[in-house]
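Subgroup meeting minutes
Present: P.N., E.W., G.H.
Scribe: E.W.

1. P.N. recapped why we're keeping a running log of single-chain structure predictions: easier to compare across weeks, and new members can see raw inputs and outputs side by side.
2. G.H. added today's entry (66 aa).
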Amino acid sequence: MNRSNITGQRLVAVFLLGCVLLNYPVLFLFNRPESIHGVPLLYIYIFGAWALLIGLMAIVIERLRH
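Output recorded in log:
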């Protein structure tokens, strides 16, 4: 298999993971009135999932260079 083909497949997998993490049923689990240091739990989850997806994309793309 071509190296760029594997990278493309991994990026598609990260995209699909993002679709699952940011979809309504999962978001509903964190939609509670609780907060951590004054920040609602839903906001923490959304930005944490977003940061995780960016980190995973960076790891996948950087593997292509090595």
